[in-house]
Design brief:
two-stranded antiparallel sheet, mainly alpha, 174 residues, 29% helix, two-stranded antiparallel ribbon, 2 domains
C-alpha cells in the first residue's frame, strides 16, 4: 500500500485506508459542503462521508489504524517504492517533518492516552516515571498484537511513542 500526503489537510495517509485517496473517482461521491476537496488526494478524515446515493462511505473521520501525522503542505510526494519522500531533501523519514501542534494521539490502544499525558507532566522522579510509562506502552503493544491489530500499525504507533518518551527523558536529564 502506498502512502501519500492529503492535499486538503497535509497529513500522511495510506491508500488502502482512504479509497485510494478518492482522486479519479470523483463521480462516486456526494461532495455537498466540501466541493473544494473534489479532485484532490484525500485522507480518510477529509474524504466525503456519503456516496452519490447518500450511503455511508466510512470516510469523513480518521480511520484510527495509525497515528495521524500532519506534514507541511505540498512538501511530500509518493516515491517509486510507495513511500512519502520529502521533495527538497529526498528523505523518506516523513515523521521528522511532522507539524507537532497538529499531531493527533492514537486512541485505539488502552493505556496509551494516560501514558502520553504523563509525558507532558513535570518530572520529579524522571527514571521511575519514565520506566512506568514505558511499561504501559510495552503492555499495550503486546495486547494490541494479541487482539489482532496489524503488526506494522502497532509498531508504528509504538515507535512514535517511544521517540516521545526518549525526548521527554532527555529533557528531564537536563
Amino acid at each position: 500500500m502506498s502512502l501519500f500526503q492529503c492535499e486538503h489537510c497535509g497529513c500522511a495517509e495510506n491508500t488502502a485506508l482512504s479509497l485510494q485517496g478518492t482522486k479519479g473517482i470523483d463521480d462516486w461521491f456526494d461532495w455537498t459542503g466540501i466541493e473544494d476537496r473534489k479532485g484532490k488526494l484525500l485522507c480518510s478524515a477529509c474524504g466525503p462521508p456519503k456516496d452519490e446515493d447518500g450511503d455511508d462511505t466510512k470516510l469523513g473521520t480518521w480511520h484510527g489504524e495509525f497515528e495521524r501525522v500532519f506534514l507541511p503542505m505540498g512538501e511530500f510526494k509518493t516515491n517509486r517504492e510507495g513511500n512519502l519522500e520529502h521533495v527538497k531533501t529526498g528523505s523518506t523519514d516523513f515523521r521528522k517533518f511532522a507539524i507537532e501542534n497538529k499531531m493527533k494521539q492514537p486512541s485505539s490502544l488502552k493505556g496509551h492516552q494516560q501514558a502520553l499525558e504523563n509525558l507532558n507532566q513535570p518530572c520529579d522522579r524522571p527514571c521511575a516515571k519514565l520506566i512506568s510509562e514505558l511499561r504501559v506502552m510495552l503492555d499495550d503493544r503486546e495486547a494490541a498484537l494479541q487482539v489482532g491489530f496489524k503488526p506494522w500499525v502497532v509498531n508504528a504507533v509504538f515507535h512514535t511513542n517511544v521517540e516521545r518518551l526518549i525526548k521527554r527523558a532527555e529533557e528531564c536529564g537536563k
